[in-house]
Design a protein that fits this description.
Blueprint (H helix, E strand, L loop, with lengths): L19 H25 L11 H13 L21 H12 L7 H25 L4 H13 L1 H6 L6 H18 L6 H14 L6 H13 L3 H24 L7 H7 L1 H8 L5 H21 L6 H25 L3 H13 L8 H4 L3 H22 L4 H57 L5 E4 L2 H8 L2 E3 L5 H4 L4 H8 L2 H7 L4 E5 L8 H12 L5 E7 L2 E6 L1 H4 L7 H7 L2 H4 L1
Parallel strand pairs: 1-2, 1-3
Antiparallel strand pairs: 3-5, 4-5
């Protein structure tokens, strides 16, 4: 059996053995079939019970509501309603179309789900075109695209109001146009690539890596005019966003509001130089684990799993290098490298969601490295008996790895992901009594401390804040540090004029998990400071006692209190 058949694709075939027309029918049948599970999930969970799972997804929807209601591009869920200067506007603009067609929440969520999922088939098609442009055979590209459509991480991005899929569509379009501009006379194709790249940047600021990478590749190829045109057109979009954000920048000094509206200012306000080594160590490990999770749907955090993840990540990187050498197309590889370098010092562990825009390069790189691996094994099958035994053992190992990838992804999208979404459905239902109590019993101008503040706003119309989950307790957290942090809840609420606090089922699932819920519930349960107003199995509402809520504390006092504790918590 030819080891080249043992790939991460469902099936590969030599193009000479397949009639071109029959091959095309087989390809599109495979891709349509691979999209069916995601379509089934989109329909089954069209009410979007997972809304708010990333926090950012609810922020996008709130910002879209502001656009649709002619309130400006703002974060309506925050008490100060600042302009949205953190997330670019392309995705909120698309979502605002749904708000304009149906302004009733949550009844409009099935329409939101339909819009989000509709990007997935377009993304799969564009990835197929990019892979073909990289020189992969038709069935090789189809196999990787089928895996793309069946990846639970990709599918989940098509069921949520997150920017990864919209960004991926525009990124693939820009890459296709860039490579085609190499063979077309004039600069029209390059200008279109610049427009697609500029729109990608206006979808996700990670797109700035494309401006850097594409310009460098064009200059390296001595395409001076095309480099200038691409940079100029892309730069118009980037400059427009930067000028707008500067004109509408939040001018206050509250670090919590800065957390919501400005990446750079919050990074400078919260990160110390002494944090960087820990960021680098943790983030490199997180990206290796994220790479393995993208390919295998999931990966453990034990030592053996992390070592395996590093092997997978290194193999994918080697395969990307091999792809560039084989095809001569370096745009995506350099974009991936620029993105990687951006993530290394980031103040949040970059998991598989951060790496999702790099998925086509990761999957293709790993496939090419596996193919090279099998080629080497096949060569050794003609050697001495010990070499044949060793090569045979490696082929068996490679076969197991190849079989695990489609199995884990198919299981993930058919079994694991539906279970996760059912869990979110239960969490959403458990939260509703708390939302109803706040909506019906609190004043219209009440302000609430809660973990998922934009989601709470969508359900209740009440503004509020979450206490930022800082790297001080995520990179080196302990239960004692969580307790100390949340004991400052009353000070946080007093400074930010918050009247109520809401703790619900599913809180802290993105970071501190059960320990965060325990620590916050314990802090809010202090009867000297709070009164418990409402309790249900999935939600508890507390009210800050008036004597502590009278007057204003010194602005920034809470932040200074938490910041000054850094030496003790690192």
């Amino acid at each position: 059996m030819d080891p080249r058949l043992l790939t991460i694709t469902v099936l590969t075939a030599d193009k000479r053995s397949v009639n071109p027309k029959a091959g095309s029918i087989l390809v599109w049948t495979l891709l349509v079939g691979a999209l069916l599970p995601s379509a089934w999930l989109a329909w089954r969970f069209r009410a979007m019970p997972q809304l708010g799972a990333y926090h950012d997804d609810a922020v996008y929807l709130v910002s879209a509501k502001a656009l649709a209601s002619h309130s400006g591009y703002r974060i309506l869920s925050l008490p100060e309603k600042p302009f949205q200067t953190k997330y670019p506007p392309v995705l909120p603009f698309l979502l605002s179309i749904v708000w304009r067609l149906d302004p009733h929440f949550p009844e409009n969520l099935p329409k939101v789900t339909a819009l989000c999922w509709s990007l997935l088939p377009l993304y799969v098609f564009l990835v197929f075109r990019v892979l073909r442009q990289w020189g992969l055979r038709q069935m090789e590209a189809a196999g990787i695209c089928a895996l793309t459509a069946l990846s639970p991480h990709v599918v989940l991005s098509g069921l949520m109001t997150m920017s990864e899929l919209a960004f991926g569509v525009l990124l693939m379009a820009a890459l296709l146009l860039l490579e085609r501009s190499m063979t077309k006379p004039g600069v029209a194709m390059t200008a279109l690539a610049g427009m697609a790249g500029g729109l990608a940047f206006l979808t996700r600021t990670q797109g700035i890596a494309l401006l850097i990478s594409a310009s460098l590749v064009l200059l390296w190829r001595r395409r001076w005019l095309q480099a200038a045109v691409f940079s100029l057109v892309f730069g118009v979009f980037a400059a427009a966003w930067l000028v707008w954000t500067h004109a509408h920048a939040y001018t206050g000094t509250d670090p919590v509001t800065i957390y919501y509206v400005d990446y750079a200012r919050f990074y400078l306000a919260s990160v110390h130089w002494s944090d960087i080594p820990q960021f680098v160590q943790t983030n490199l490990d997180s990206m290796a684990t994220g790479t393995a999770r993208l390919l295998f749907a999931t990966s453990g955090l034990d030592l053996a799993s992390r070592m395996f993840a590093w092997v997978i990540a290194i193999a994918a990187a080697s395969g990307i290098r091999r792809m560039v050498a084989r095809s001569g197309q370096a745009h995506f590889a350099l974009f991936s490298l620029a993105s990687f370098l951006m993530f290394v010092p980031w103040n949040w562990p970059p998991n598989e969601r951060y790496l999702l825009p790099l998925w086509p390069a990761i999957a293709t790189g790993f496939y090419l490295e596996l193919r090279h691996f099998f080629d080497l094994c096949r060569m050794n099958l003609a050697g001495s008996f010990p070499n044949r035994v060793f090569a045979g053992a490696l082929i068996v190992l490679g076969t197991v790895v190849c079989a695990a990838i489609p199995y884990r992804n198919v299981r993930g999208v058919l079994i694991d992901l539906p279970e996760v979404l059912e869990g979110y459905r239960g969490i959403s239902a458990a939260r509703q009594p708390g939302y109803s109590w706040i909506r019906e019993n609190s004043p219209a101008d009440a302000q609430v401390l809660t973990y998922d503040d934009p989601l709470m706003y969508l359900h209740t119309g009440r503004s509020g804040y979450a206490m930022p989950i800082l790297h001080w307790i995520t990179y080196a957290g302990t239960p004692d540090r969580s307790d100390a942090y949340f004991k400052t809840s009353a000070d946080f609420m007093q400074e930010h004029k918050l009247n109520y606090a809401l703790v619900t089922a599913g809180d802290f699932r993105r970071d501190l998990q059960a320990d965060g819920r325990r620590a916050m519930t314990a802090a809010l349960g202090d009867q000297r400071v709070f009164d418990q107003e409402f309790a249900s199995p999935g939600a508890i509402v507390f009210k800050l006692k008036p004597r502590l809520n009278a007057g204003l504390s010194r602005p920034g006092a809470w932040w200074a209190q938490v910041r000054d504790s850094v030496p003790a918590t690192q």
